[in-house]
Amino acid sequence: MRRLDNLERWLDRQFYVPGIRMPVGVDGIVGLLPVVGDTATAALSAYIVWEAHKAGADGSVKARMLGNIALDYLIGLVPVIGWVGDFFHKANTKNVRLLKRHLAERGRLAGPAEL
């Protein structure tokens, strides 16, 4: 789980931009490159879903995770709105939380380094 926590932090909230109080990650920065940046970060986000699959997450959880990634990707394709969207829609943060909650409910999350 530690590996996914680190990836989530790096993608969604690693840096603070002076003048605003919201963190931004590589997803928001690379998302400034039209299409290419959003596609690259969506691929990295998909890794979290792959790890969820390997951990035994249900299909409904994985579908919600993919939906979060798809929404993040589609918002990111719209110039200006996509950049603002990266500040507010943190798909990776949502997905790691979904996975943790799901595994905890199933009794599969014993410790922080289980995945």
Q: How would you portray this structure in words?
A:
This protein has 115 residues and is mainly α. It has one domain (2-105). Helix content is 66%, strand content 3%. The protein is built from six helices and two strands; from the N terminus they run H-E-E-H-H-H-H-H. The chain has helices at 2-12, 26-30, 36-54, 59-76, 81-88, 91-105, and strands at residues 15-16, 23-24. The protein has a two-stranded antiparallel sheet. A hairpin with a 6-residue loop joins strand 1 and strand 2. Helix 1 runs antiparallel to helix 3, helix 3 (36-54) packs antiparallel against helix 4 and helix 4 (59-76) runs antiparallel to helix 5. The mean pLDDT is 88.
What topology does this entry show?
Elements: H1 2-12, E1 15-16, E2 23-24, H2 26-30, H3 36-54, H4 59-76, H5 81-88, H6 91-105
Antiparallel strand pairs: 1-2
Helix pairs in contact: 1-3, 1-6, 3-4, 3-6, 4-5, 4-6
Distance between the termini: 5 Å
Strand order of the largest sheet: 1-2
Low-confidence stretches: none
Outline, from the CA principal axes? Answer: globular
Element pattern in H and E: HEEHHHHH
Largest sheet: 2 strands, antiparallel
Radius of gyration: 14 Å
Query: How many helices in DSSP terms?
Result: 6
Tally of discrete structural domains? 1
